[in-house]
Amino acid sequence: MRHGKKINHLGRKSAHRHALLSNMASSLILNKRITTTVAKAKALRKYVEPLLTKAKNDTTHSRRTVFSYLQNKESVQTLFGEVASKISDRPGGYTRIIKFGDVRVGDNAEMCLIELVDFNTLYTKDGATKKAKTRRSRTSKKAEGAEATAEGATEAAPAAEAKAEKKPRKAAPKKEKE
């Protein structure tokens, strides 16, 4: 049983795995999309998304924390520069994994593309502006409902009078127990 085993070790020792994820995260930040296996992409997503969240707050402490993970000055500059400005209003979900459906010839591993969501222009519409977030309120529905009932009341009044004129149905007499 695999109770409490959340980490995919990717068939590597911990130092090798951390180096792999660090290099892949740097490549993802610099190139905005990389091709890899599905297992590595899922592990990379867990590794890089907290770093992207930390990059929203541009302080010396957060830069040093991110640098301790990435070990690459250029990727830290890119992350806190252009990437952080694009993801500043996104509450999470910075990466997208797109499966190719084909497999690698050597080992039959399922391949995919992992990319930063805000840097893909295929899925964004040209000229489409972001809608402002609106809060739901019931006041407008009540106002619309009041208008509708006022209009419907004049039409429904004759029907209500006709129903009132009808005699109510009598209930069937109850049988007494013997």
UniProtKB/TrEMBL annotation:
<dbReference type="Pfam" id="PF01196">
    <property type="entry name" value="Ribosomal_L17"/>
</dbReference>
<feature type="compositionally biased region" description="Basic residues">
    <location>
        <begin position="130"/>
        <end position="140"/>
    </location>
</feature>
<dbReference type="GO" id="GO:0005840">
    <property type="term" value="C:ribosome"/>
</dbReference>
<keyword id="KW-0689">Ribosomal protein</keyword>
<protein>
    <recommendedName>
        <fullName>Large ribosomal subunit protein bL17</fullName>
    </recommendedName>
</protein>
<feature type="region of interest" description="Disordered">
    <location>
        <begin position="128"/>
        <end position="178"/>
    </location>
</feature>
<dbReference type="InterPro" id="IPR000456">
    <property type="entry name" value="Ribosomal_bL17"/>
</dbReference>
<comment type="similarity">
    <text>Belongs to the bacterial ribosomal protein bL17 family.</text>
</comment>
<keyword id="KW-0687">Ribonucleoprotein</keyword>
<comment type="subunit">
    <text>Part of the 50S ribosomal subunit. Contacts protein L32.</text>
</comment>
<feature type="compositionally biased region" description="Low complexity">
    <location>
        <begin position="146"/>
        <end position="161"/>
    </location>
</feature>
<dbReference type="InterPro" id="IPR047859">
    <property type="entry name" value="Ribosomal_bL17_CS"/>
</dbReference>
<dbReference type="InterPro" id="IPR036373">
    <property type="entry name" value="Ribosomal_bL17_sf"/>
</dbReference>
